[in-house]
Amino acid sequence: MTRRARVLAGRDSRAATNELLAGLQRGGFAPRALGGFIADATLRSWREARKRPRAVVEATAVHVAVGALAGRRGLPWIVTSWLMAVTHFGMLEGRRDLGAANVLTVARGALPAAGHRLGSPATVALALATDFADGKLARGTASVTRFGAQGDFLADTALWTWFVLRHERSAAWRVATFAAWAAPVLGVTAVSFARGGMVDLPRSRWFRPAAAVEVLIGGRVLWRWWASRRVSGHLIRRA
């Protein structure tokens, strides 16, 4: 077995990803190299998912539940979200299941599929609640994983980008959302491919612009909802 084969078959998901990216770079990003990259990445994802049938069942159950609420309209998002989850189970590393924290993260990533049924206030409330709870659960139960750390940011990126594009008319809020989530993801991805190895997203405990934007957008939506309820109640009482 070659060194590359050993790395791709090993438990270290970061080493495997680095090997895949390095091979793509060595191949000059030519069609043959790209094809090999996709084939090897798909094979590794399949192997890692097969090692974790319980995690597959958990992720599937979450998406079936959200999909039942979403209906046919949300099916494309459900399928995409499910594929994103099950193809990254190597990042669970030593775990064989998702765990409660990662279940919440996966559920948040699937939420936009049911946004048209839940409505803006409920979607925002669930997003904020799960984002707060998954980190607390992971740290409190000593179950922090790379899957959770990376998945948390990607779930937020997908959900808040979708929400702002769909529900927010303000160009300023759209730009702020892109700068807080999509831009860092795209930047890290581009640099990782260019360097032939994974680059971590810079994160600070004290400086977290994405968290600030999330709270501001969520608070704005919930405030509008509460204010409209007050006005409606006042009009009903006057009538």
Automatic annotation (TrEMBL):
GO CC annotation: membrane
GO biological process, one term: phospholipid biosynthetic process
Keywords: Transferase
Organism domain of life: Bacteria
Molecular function terms, GO-annotated: phosphotransferase activity, for other substituted phosphate groups
Keyword Transmembrane helix applies: no
InterPro entries for this protein: CDP-OH_P_trans, CDP-OH_PTrfase_TM_dom, CDP_ALCOHOL_P_TRANSF_CS
Family membership noted in the UniProt record: Belongs to the CDP-alcohol phosphatidyltransferase class-I family.
Name assigned to this protein: CDP-alcohol phosphatidyltransferase-like enzyme
Organism placement in taxonomy: Bacteria, Bacillati, Actinomycetota, Actinomycetes, Micrococcales
